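Morning!

This is the sequence you dropped in the shared folder:
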Amino acid sequence: MSATRVCALSELEQDTARRVVIGDVPIAVVLDSAGEVHAIGDTCTHGAISLSEGFVEDDTLECWAHGSRFSLRTGAALNLPAYEPVPVYVVQIEGDDVLIDPTVTKEF
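The structure's back. Tokens below.
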């Protein structure tokens, strides 16, 4: 699969997660306070909760239901109750388009 346009960069709100679904892959897209765009799996590994409904702070996304925080850079679970990471996807910016390939994840 190739990268798919998920939104315009100008549509992203800083420090707010946006849920997109490519095929059957839910992804949380975040424009952080430093202006960097991140894409991580949108499902909390502690429970089937959408992370895009959570809270962005610096380079983390917090699950609104359980309080687990995930690194936007590595996908690592930073505190309990979650301990498994979420996938992190490669983001491409072309002009004002945000593109993600859900078959390409970053390795850490």
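Headline: The chain has one domain: 4-105.

More detail when I'm at my desk.
O.
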